[in-house]
Automatic annotation (TrEMBL):
Any single Pfam family the record assigns to this protein: Tim17
Membrane topology: Multi-pass membrane protein
Annotated transmembrane regions: 15-35
UniProt main location, coarse: mitochondrion
InterPro entries hit by this protein: TIM22
Subcellular location: Mitochondrion inner membrane
GO cellular component, one term: TIM22 mitochondrial import inner membrane insertion complex
Domain of life, per lineage: Eukaryota
Similarity annotation: Belongs to the Tim17/Tim22/Tim23 family.
Keyword Mitochondrion: yes
GO molecular function, one term: mitochondrion targeting sequence binding
Protein name stated in the entry: Mitochondrial import inner membrane translocase subunit TIM22
Amino acid sequence: MHGQDIWNNCAVRSVVSGVMGCGLGLMMGLLLGALDTRIMQDEMTGKRQFIYQAKSMGRRSWSSEKAFAVMGLVFSAAECVVEKARAKHDTTNTVVVGCITGGALSAKAGPQAACVGCAGFAAFSVSIEKFLDRLD
């Protein structure tokens, strides 16, 4: 495979998106963990506060990394497969891919949650695509 051909491979695109999602999740987790304000400053020493904050950031990071990695991998894989099957890129693809991703991410919570996830992520995906199209 040559440089351009490798990006046409759905598996490669999906894995790269998963890794990038993991990195984004790490940053989000660190940020949200750092903003966690459940610490009572009067009750903890500086060292204990630091340890608590570091553990909180680590927990949030790991959780966010997994979520964003799965989201990136599923979305990218679905997008690649749908685009190849339909041989075009349009809003219909975005709706289908968003629905697949949202449904897959929510499936553990049951069929009703999967339906809500499908609809919500599809709407979110379309709105993001429309917003990005306006920037061009």
